[in-house]
Amino acid sequence: MSIKRLKKAVAAGLAVLMTVSSFNVTGINVSAAGLPSTEGHDKYVDKEVFDVISAEDFGSKPLDAPLFDKSKGSQDVTDLQVPTLAYDDTSISLVWMKPEKYDDIADYRVYINDKLDGTARESYAKNAAWADTYMKAFYEYYATNSDVPMVEVDIHSYRATGLTPDTEYTFKVVAVNDAGQEVGTAAELTQKTTPTPEVFNIEDFGAVAESGATGPVTYDDAINAKVEKNTKAIQDAIDACTPGGKVVIPEGKTYVSGALWLKSDMTLEVNGTLWASPNSDHFEIGFLMYPFYTDTRGWGLVNATSADEEHPLENIRITGNGTLYGNGWKYGASDKISGDGYTSNKGQNTQS
């Protein structure tokens, strides 16, 4: 049997499995084999495109016609919206669908209360600087080292900052072409910021920062005691947080902690570094990666889950410009870390 026929036979077998003993979990159709069914996929997938790319000869000959034609249709911005919880007392984030005709779209201008606030690309460079830097380096590399043309990513999101709490704003987004001209019809919406939240600084509850920018990668009795004290202090801040409140990890500091448990209607603002304990005993066992797993694992550094399936947690936000550092596996042998733990010890001893 050829590889191609084998793949089709396997696919047919899976298709049969997916029609037997299927069940529904929180709105997601799942088969007995744990695979999602294709029911409702036409809502997200263009059937004509799907038929082309699933054909047996796809990729073996030129296409009869382009799968997508970005040179026709409307240049209107559509589906402008504020994603769930993507706003607070001083900021509001927007997303939208790019126009049908986008072959000459270079950017989008965003107006707040009829005054130009900025462009999508300016906002991306400011609010997603790490990704923007990588993306620019990617395009620069291929422009210099390859003759393969790269399609530039379209940025259709925006984060408005410096807003006033508990205030309503009207946003308008319009496409801009290569010549710097506004084209198509702008999309518009109104959104209100939240009231100023009550702030719960973890240091007010007894959390103590590390003396340097990093936390421990090994542990002893003294480090264990510090981790346990910090974990309790941070958890106390979370437990004390009032509905709509905000627990803050202070900027420029590093705090080592064990497993933390969030609750509904709160924000965890990480401006500093939350450093996971190097001792696995500080992370309770009981996490199931998948519902059908039987082996339990340790919970993570920050957890948001409820044992009550009838009342799951909701309205939880994790924000800030800081770092959640998992302090994961290191290079070494047995219980000994090799060097700093981040440089491969291949050829010296086995890896742990």
How is this structure best described in words?
This protein is α/β, with parallel strands linked by helices. Helices cover 19% and strands 27% of the residues. The chain is built from 5 helices and 22 strands. It has helices at 3-17, 47-53, 120-127, 129-145, 221-240, and strands at residues 23-25, 28-30, 78-81, 92-97, 105-112, 115-119, 157-160, 168-177, 182-192, 199-201, 245-249, 254-257, 260-261, 266-270, 273-276, 285-287, 297-298, 302-303, 316-319, 323-325, 332-333, 336-337. The strands form 8 sheets. It has a 4-stranded antiparallel β-sheet. Strands 10-11-14-19 form a 4-stranded parallel β-sheet, with helices on one face. Strand 5 (105-112) and strand 6 form a beta hairpin. The longest helix has 20 residues, at 221-240. It is globular.
User: Percent helix among the residues?
Assistant: 10-25%
Low-confidence stretches: 1-38
Measured between the Cα atoms of the first and last residue, the distance is 42 Å
The mean pLDDT is: 84
What is the secondary structure topology, with strand pairs?
Blueprint: H1 3-17, E1 23-25, E2 28-30, H2 47-53, E3 78-81, E4 92-97, E5 105-112, E6 115-119, H3 120-127, H4 129-145, E7 157-160, E8 168-177, E9 182-192, E10 199-201, H5 221-240, E11 245-249, E12 254-257, E13 260-261, E14 266-270, E15 273-276, E16 285-287, E17 297-298, E18 302-303, E19 316-319, E20 323-325, E21 332-333, E22 336-337
Parallel strand pairs: 10-11, 11-14, 12-15, 13-18, 14-19, 15-20
Antiparallel strand pairs: 1-2, 3-4, 4-7, 5-6, 5-8, 8-9, 16-17, 21-22
Helix pairs in contact: 3-4
